[in-house]
Amino acid sequence: MVVQLNFGNIYTGPIETDPIENTCFNPESEITFTWSGQECDCELQLQVRTCGSGEDWETIADIPNSGSYTWTIPDYYMGDYEFQIYDCDDYEIPFVGCINIDEYGLALSAVLKGCGEYDFFGDVTGVDPMNISSHLWTIDVLAELPNASPSYTFQDAGQYFITYEVVSDVGCVLEETILLDVEYGVGDPDCKFADTDVLSEVIGDLFINDECQGVIMVSPNGTCFRLTIGDDGSITSQAIECP
Length: 243
What we know:
disordered N terminus, elongated
């Protein structure tokens, strides 16, 4: 007589790995690995090696078979890497493709052109502009603009979330969001934006005789700002197009 004993949830892998969410990451950022299949008692190992090298796999974490695991990239990781899961039945299950770890960045700027009128620019680090396959600017809930440097006119004053996303031809996705404070809408009668400066020289000083004019200065990153003064003597700055 054969007696079958049930000791609970027995692992009969292998599991199936899901595609990694992105192909580019910064050091000290997080990667979430996901997989599907049986969530049974089977200790897994997350392993890494240089992409396409054929080197021995290095175990970077012992992980439970829970369907997902988030790994924080050490600050010394730079270059191309591939990953796999090694399970308790000696199966090696790779994650498809490679990722690149580098100093990626995306900086956004909004340049005021007129009352409620803005030009938007993005400065991408880590991706050659020639290798960017798509651009997408999302102007809060108002518009989506698939251009590298679009313009947009706000009808009303307010605060708006501006998101810029670029995708490279190898699947690297970079995204950044800023909160833009729009002081005047396009039809606001209180807006006194002007395109030219009204200047005169008085005994060596620079005299500006128009309340909506100011001094234009260039920041270290090349952005121009107009400095104006309020009734209490406080100085404010406003990003504008460089003359």
